Amino acid sequence: MNVERGACVSAGTALREDARPQVLLGGVRAAAELGLGRGEFARAVQLGLVRRGPRAPGGAARFTRTELERVKAERGFPEALRARVETVAGADHGARVLGTGPTRFTRLARCGRLSPVGYRVNRYRALVWLYLAAELREFATREPGLLRGAAPPGDRELMAAGVDLRPSRWRERHVGLLLGRAAGPWERAAVLASVLPDEEVLAAVPDPAERIVLAALAPPPPYGHPQVPAAAAVARPLLVAQPPEETGRYRAGLELALAGARDQSNSTGERGPT
To answer: What InterPro entries does UniProt report for this protein, alphabetically (predicted)?
Structure first.
């Protein structure tokens, strides 16, 4: 009997502890807790290495103490985490990490062999791509034959046609990460709609009320997107799918997500996320 009473007390205590509100920290405080710089922390959040908690009423990201403790408990912290979020900017720096020349690095990136993780616009209003250093090192180990000698026939065809796959490869990663964090079908639909040209969204979503919902749920520009209007104009085209095959892929995904979102709305009697 005493054992049962003790078990009940322990269970009750555990329930009360689980019911206690989570301690939520803002991004600046969370970055300091993890010993990361602003850029390092933003990249860790982007990659899902540090998971967001419930947002503040104003929409700002917040992070639970439990999540920060989970990150701290991972093997090799903090050096391993810093290594995973380390980025290099441009062909010169990327080529040094890859162990090849800038011209070859640019060719590999343009042909889609390397996927950018971000971008920035420099003072000359030129677009500079960012790459994860760890991915470059892994590529050099996995594909040493591509770092020397003649380019494969497929790459030569792409270069002769003037193809540059860096924007679409970046969008593919960006959209994938956003979809992985989406809370439901309306949020997923909003992510996919956000990278489609306006005319594609209009055709896929003829209901104006649904378009309002998708616009309200649209993700903000990615970290590093310039705020200065002239620089933002340089980067803005990156946010929208361009080649027909890419546009078609995202539109098909949008229509599928919308079907799920509409089913959800029909079951709850409400339009939009619940």
So the answer is: DUF6397
Number of domains composing the chain: 3
Amino acid identity of residue 21, one-letter, is P
pLDDT, tens digit, 9 for 90 and up, residues 134-169: 999 999 999 999 999 999 999 999 999 999 999 999
In a domain, 2, yes or no: no
**Rounded-to-integer distance, Cα 145 and Cα 140, Å:** 9
Tokens of 204: 């896929």
Question: What is the residue-wise DSSP string for 42-71?
Answer: HHHHHTTSS---SPPTTS--EEEHHHHHHH
What Cα–Cα distance (Å) separates residue 242 from each residue in 117, 238, 258? 18, 9, 22
Collapse the DSSP code of 273 into the 3-class scheme (helix H, G, I; strand E, B; otherwise coil) and give the result.
coil
- Residue 78, preceding bond cis, omega within 30 degrees? yes
The predicted model scores a pTM of 0.86
Q: Same structural domain for residues 138 and 175?
A: no
What's the domain range around 231? 168-268
- Torsion sign over Cα 174, 232, 250, 135: negative
The pair of three-digit structure tokens given for residue 238, joined into one six-digit string: 């990156």
| pLDDT tens digits, 192-203 | 999 999 999 999
Same domain, 197 and 264: yes
